[in-house]
Specification:
globular; alpha+beta; 6-stranded antiparallel beta sheet; 29% strand; two-stranded antiparallel sheet
Amino acid sequence: MLIGEYKYNLDDKKRLTMPSKFRTILGKKAIVTKGIDGCLFMYSEKAWKELAEKIAKLPFSQSNARSFSRIMLAGAMDVLIDSNGRILIPDYLKEYAGLDKKVVVAGLYSRIEVWDEDKWDKYNKENTDRIDDVAEGLKEFEI
């Protein structure tokens, strides 16, 4: 299970250290892709395969399905986790998420989100301030 919030700095070679408890789940490789809300999504190979299969079944005749497929699948890249637990995120993904130096790695059960720290802090504050309204809207999901 991927949970928790961790703050890291990209090193001089722009590598990102992954939390050790995430590394045990990810193994030696992960898949990183463009996420929603300006972050990156990261998956284990198993979780990515399950998600990618669902995305691949979306009807290509629908514009939103095509757009989502292109962003998630074409935007994805597999990354190797080195012996020190670091990954090298491709430049196009760092640019997409606005990653500079300070980064937040957040575990969300079956995926990891990678955020620029300032963007994460802003997003987190805005949504924490309205958590009661957000929770109210989740009644239909029985949460």
